[in-house]
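Supplementary Methods, section 5.1.

A reviewer requested that the exact input to the structure prediction be made available. We therefore reproduce it here, unchanged from the version used in the analyses.
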Amino acid sequence: MQEPLVPDAWSVRPRRSSTAPVQLGAGDFTMDYASPQPVPAAFTTIAWRLGHVIVGVLAARNAAHFGAPAASYETWEYAGSAATALDQLKTQLDVWLAGVRGLGDAGLRVPVGAKEPFPELPMADLVLHIHRELIHHLSEVCLLRDLYLHTKPGISGERLMTAKTTHLDPEELHSNPAFTQGVIAPAARTLYVGGQLGTDSTGNLLDGIEAQTAQAMRNVLTVLAAAGTGPEHVAKLNIYLVHGVDAQVGYAASRSVWGNHRTAITVVSTAGHARPGALVEIDAVAIVPE
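The structure derived from this sequence is encoded token-by-token as follows.
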């Protein structure tokens, strides 16, 4: 997610990079919050508003009324990119709409029950409330997007759409489900992520290849998010492992953070790194959607 332009805005940020009093979420990205809420209320970004709609408006209600998995602000794995957030929104919206369509007239008259603040109200009232929330918050998202468009001369609406990379996997080459043999990146700004070590936000080097690799990959994600892009837009990863470390352990650790985003990759065995004790270094080349 791109860094907000409004000071002290609430947003979705890489874990441990937020200064908000409360950081909600179970994954690599957290959503800013405070309790009690500040007065005046904090400005909330597009990323934050999408998180609210996906989790609080849709996913929690899908779980309460339509048999979807349990969902809460505290346990949700928030999206680290616009594309992932839109995928989450579509998934939850599809579940909600399918559930509402299946209610029928009789189902709309049934009280919502104890899972809602006003249990005696009919399901029709909840449906109306959720649809008002969707109209309200997604209209805000559209407005913020338009304001951004008109404060950035020369950027067209089409260029604001998420850029896509194309994977190349020739039949003549061995197919690997974890990475692709080549990536075609569209014309866009290019981000070169400098080599990231397994150091935390204070500069301390973590212990062991597993911890260092996971942290180095999280650091790469942090740089991507600061540029307004994400792992789905990475064209190339370079991973430099000190000779003798267990590469499989490092690979598993990196996948646990990186996820299933296939990209071109080069892994190199090195004699060592500039910082004593560093076992792995990771850099990346990515496109930045405009």
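The beta strands are 12-14, 22-24, 29-33, 166-168, 182-184, 189-196, 234-242, 264-270, 280-288. These observations are discussed further in the main text.
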